[in-house]
Amino acid sequence: MTAYADTISRPVKTLTEAEQRALLKVTGQHVDGFRDHVIFSLAMGTGLREHELLALDVGDVFDVAGRAKRRVALRVFKRSAKDPVAQEVLLPDAVRAKLERLLTTRKRVGETITPTTPVFVSRLGRRLSARQLRHLFAVWQERAGFERHVGFHTLRHHACSAVYRQSKDLRLTQKFARHKSVVTTSIYTHPTDDELLRAVQGLVC
Fold it and tell me: 88 in helix, strand or coil?
């Protein structure tokens, strides 16, 4: 077996259902944490990679009336070819509502919002960096009571795995993940610990 095949055969890290609920709950409870709540919701609702998410500008996500778009065209994404094709993601309605609330809050406190303004900014008003994002994700995991530490990319794995679990459609999951090869997408077909536990609980014993 090749090293690549061995990597593909191993299950990816995803959040447990309890971790997902705890993360969204604790960030949603804090006014100062709402930006981060939206970031995590967006990652889990779209499967956006870290750098794709941080590169989003207001004009990418919102129309001129301040409404979140249903389809977002990406300007920055993983380049798997010399001439990568344009990519876009669909925004779930729940995520769109949170994004609109975030934008409204920023306008209310007097921020100058233009189409080139970053969607996610630091407290200094600059585009949030990858380093800052990783740090705040680690902080919120601790506040949410995680018994382990996972990287931010786990949220993408979680999103793609969730799409496969709901649809059982590998091609649909491939489209959601924006993978060139369905072989890459196959890593999301592994059953989760939550699914195994439910199966075991249903055994007659």
Answer: strand
